[in-house]
């Protein structure tokens, strides 16, 4: 998680938005990935990525039109993480919460 976004992702507004969006998606198709439709959703992804410039723009950060519930693989592909070695990437639990790094 990028330093500029830590407060946002730990905040109540994101927590409520994220939980509501996951519940909505589970009601539509059981919570399947909105990209591949083959794996369960794993993380709520911002289609327009959050940047230092957009972090305070609720149309980017909290608007459901900018969100997708995606599996880890599709999220990693979207961000270009696939093929990177090592434990440098954040791992997420089944609810999309960041997990502590593996030792």
């Amino acid at each position: 998680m990028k330093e500029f976004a830590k407060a946002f992702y730990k905040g109540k507004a994101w927590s409520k938005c994220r939980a509501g969006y996951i519940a909505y998606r589970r009601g539509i198709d059981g919570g399947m990935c909105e990209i591949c439709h083959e794996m369960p959703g794993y993380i709520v992804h911002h289609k327009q990525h959050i940047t230092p410039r957009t972090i305070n723009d609720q149309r980017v950060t909290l608007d459901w039109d900018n969100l997708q519930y995606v599996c880890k693989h599709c999220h990693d592909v979207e961000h270009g993480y696939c093929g990177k070695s090592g434990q440098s990437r954040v791992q997420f639990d089944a609810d999309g919460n960041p997990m502590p790094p593996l030792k």
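Residues 12-29 form the longest helix (18 residues). The two ends are 18 Å apart (CA to CA).
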